[in-house]
Amino acid sequence: MKREDDIRANVRDNYAKVALKLNSTQGCCTPASSCCNPNDNQNISIEEISLKMGYTKEELESIPDGANMGLSCGNPQTIADLKPGEIVVDLGSGGGFDCFLAAPKVGREGQVIGIDMTPEMISKARCSAEKPGFENVEFRLGEIEHMPVADHTADIIISNCVINLSPNKQQVFKEAFRILKTGGRLAISDVVLTATLPESYLSDMNLYSGCISGAISIAEYEVLLKDAGFTNISIEPKDDSKELIREWEPNYDLENYIVSAIILAVK
């Protein structure tokens, strides 16, 4: 248990720093004057990261300033097939990026709930949600292993490069199954292992917070989803993501070990 708590504390601290770094002194909803990606790689901008992950310029221009923090490893919007009136839950919602993109797709009759365990992220996202047009979006502080959502609430769960960060993924999927309605869908982007990580990578807490050390294989992902009760499971690795993954930590050969994937499942 201590190991799990240590991991959560490290991840929470890391993303609190990201949220605070991207806030300016002029207002919580205003991005810093010169933002880079979370790993301080000056060679690629947040917009470039998002475009490479499959978002469009129109999508990026439609959300509140500062909501896109460059923390994606894919675009769950492309696989979610959101419909008007649906209730969406975003696991590890961060600054609210995918929540704000989902909001117009489910419309006024729908609802988008973002869950994040980092108070600084929740504050940032709530501030952005005050902008007109996002009245159907709310953000709740909580761990994705213990979601602050009632049973059988969600039509669909989305998530973007977050579940790898959990030290108890089986509990995440059990909770996801609990809050979904019968027939509800899971549509997430995450990183998966393509080869066994070196021991030195596994023991590096910074690499865990950087979405590396906590990644699991496709086979293990599928087993965890099945054990939670999900069916119609599809896990598709995206080999074209390796170029961007190489940029995450240029001093490591990460592209030899992990790849972004899109994961679909049904309750």
Automatic annotation (TrEMBL):
Which SUPFAM superfamilies is this protein grouped with? S-adenosyl-L-methionine-dependent methyltransferases
The catalytic activity, as recorded, is:
arsenic triglutathione + [thioredoxin]-dithiol + S-adenosyl-L-methionine + 2 H2O = methylarsonous acid + [thioredoxin]-disulfide + 3 glutathione + S-adenosyl-L-homocysteine + H(+); arsenic triglutathione + 3 [thioredoxin]-dithiol + 3 S-adenosyl-L-methionine = trimethylarsine + 3 [thioredoxin]-disulfide + 3 glutathione + 3 S-adenosyl-L-homocysteine + 3 H(+); arsenic triglutathione + 2 [thioredoxin]-dithiol + 2 S-adenosyl-L-methionine + H2O = dimethylarsinous acid + 2 [thioredoxin]-disulfide + 3 glutathione + 2 S-adenosyl-L-homocysteine + 2 H(+)
Keyword check for S-adenosyl-L-methionine, yes or no. Answer: yes
Q: Which InterPro entries match?
A: Arsenite_MeTrfase-like, Methyltranfer_dom, SAM-dependent_MTases_sf
- This enzyme's EC code(s): 2.1.1.137
> What's one Pfam family the UniProt record gives for this protein?
Methyltransf_31
| Homology family | Belongs to the methyltransferase superfamily. Arsenite methyltransferase family.
Q: What's the protein name?
A: Arsenite methyltransferase
